[in-house]
Amino acid sequence: MKKNNTSMLKGGGGGNGILGVFAKAPSGPIAENIENATNEQQQTDIDWSYVIAATQLINNDAAKGVPIAIKSLKLKLKSKSPVVINYALTVMDAFVKGCGRPFANELCQKDSLNFLHSTLERKSLAPENRGRLLELIADWSILIREPPSMLQFFHKLVSEGFRFPPTENVRQLLAAGGAAPPPQELIFATSEPTSGTLTTDISLAENTSQMFLETLNFSENPDELPSNEIVQEFKAKCEELRSRLATYIQQPSTDEAQLAKLLQAHTSIVNALDQYETLIKSQSAQAAEGEQAEPSAQPPEVTGTPKSDPFESSTEVENPPASASNGSQEESSPSEKKLGCVNQ
Known about the structure:
- This protein is mainly alpha-helical and 344 residues long.
- The chain has 13 helices and no strands.
- Helix content is 63%, strand content 0%.
- The longest helix is centred in the last third of the chain and has 38 residues, at 256-293.
- Residues 1-22, 177-196 and 302-344 have low confidence and may be disordered.
């Protein structure tokens, strides 16, 4: 995977922009990792090694790391490049899930929410970026219950007429008690998807499947996949998109050009999910092999009188037979080593 050795923190690459007259682009390892993760020149959709590295750095010192991360991402969201903005939103979502309460609290601050609001209102913002940000706001409203400002922000956007993608989280939030559900025209209808919805979902499916595969390839321990939050988030999103694309494919109003793109995006999602299942089954098979091999590792039969100290690792043998000292003890070693290798 190609790495970026330099980091252009001001201008260049993503068209950063400036938040204020005296605003300065943040520097340091966290900012550099975010810069590399959102670089539109990278060959793959996103390099998750930079995202994970930044997440670890933030968690090591949240008091200093979170403000740097928020400021860096704000600069990236002011980019004129839809690709850079899409990467920045992906990184922000990863930080919400991977950096816990400190990052979530900062994101829910008034100035951060005002910035997201102004981003949504920006006329130059690409439709796919706007749809992705609205979808994430709904997801964060479910995930971040305290403070409640993100949920309040969601309802404010709904009342202002922003059109949310028809995700499960959006439906759940709209159906929840408290505020009355908004008029149906404020969200995309699911029975006859508009071309904007269709294009957004196709793009989202392609990006999500690619990022899911990148995350799987980056994982060094397949046995940790079921407990990896980022992996499980991508898996759930892929499953949701697979179902949604299948619904679009069955729509009689879908033309041939749209159908071809839908089938391609659906195939990408299915392939990513199949890769996940393959890794899980492979790990299960290795675990089963280890369980079958375990009974075969029999302890060597030792004659003699052991030392009085039970915590000594060796055993003293009085007048051992030649077969006992050179036979059974050595014969057990290969089996024990093999078992240890399987269980690691």
